[in-house]
Design a protein that fits this description.
By secondary structure, the protein is α+β, with helices and mostly antiparallel strands. The protein folds into two domains: 104 residues, no CATH class; 40 residues. Helix content is 25%, strand content 23%. The protein contains two helices and six strands. The protein has a three-stranded antiparallel beta sheet, with no helix packed on it. A three-stranded antiparallel beta sheet has the order 4-5-6, with no helix packed on it. The termini are far apart.
C-alpha cells in the first residue's frame, strides 16, 4: 500500500493498494474511506456537494475506474511507491516485484493542464490589454484620491 503524493499537497489523495488475487493495482479515492461518511442515511445536498460525503457502506465496492492496471495483470508486487510529478495534479506510481508497472494518476483530475483547443493568442491579448489598462488608470486614480483628500480637509 502507498498514498499518492504531489509537490504542494493541493490535490486530494488516493490510497494505492495491490490486490494479489486479481493482480491489479487500485487507487481508492479518499472520499470512499472518509470516516465522516453518513451511516444509515443519504447525505444532504450540502454535505454531498461541499464536503464530498457519501453514504457509509460496510463493504467497499471497487469502481472499475479505480483500477490503475486496467486489464493488465501485474504479478508478484512487493512494493508500491508514489512520487510527485512536475504537475501539481499528477503523481507517478510504480509497483515492482516479479513484474514492474508504472503509471501516472491524477486524483483531482488534470486541473493544471491546458486543453489542446485553448486559445493562447486570446489569453495573451487579454493580459496585454489588462496591463495597459492598469498603467493608464493608475495615475488617474492617484489624482482622484489626492483631490478627495484635499476636499476633505
Amino acid at each position: 500500500m502507498a498514498v499518492t503524493q504531489t509537490m504542494q499537497g493541493i490535490t486530494s489523495r488516493q490510497l494505492l493498494a495491490y490486490l494479489p488475487q486479481s493482480g491489479s493495482l487500485v487507487g481508492i479515492p479518499r472520499q470512499a474511506l472518509d470516516p465522516r461518511r453518513i451511516v444509515n442515511a443519504d447525505p444532504t445536498a450540502m454535505q454531498a456537494q461541499e464536503e464530498g460525503l457519501t453514504r457509509y457502506s460496510a463493504f467497499l465496492d471497487f469502481d472499475p475506474k479505480w483500477y490503475l492496471t486496467h486489464k493488465r495483470d501485474v504479478l508478484g508486487v512487493r512494493h508500491v511507491s508514489a512520487t510527485p510529478a512536475a504537475l501539481e495534479s499528477t503523481s507517478l506510481v510504480v509497483a515492482w516485484g516479479l513484474d514492474v508497472f508504472a503509471t501516472r494518476v491524477a486524483p483531482s483530475f488534470a486541473f493544471d493542464v491546458l486543453s489542446s483547443e485553448f486559445n493562447k493568442l486570446t489569453m495573451s491579448a487579454t493580459v496585454v490589454v489588462l496591463a495597459a489598462a492598469a498603467f493608464v488608470t493608475a495615475p488617474i486614480i492617484q489624482r482622484k484620491m489626492t483631490n478627495a483628500m484635499w476636499q476633505s480637509v
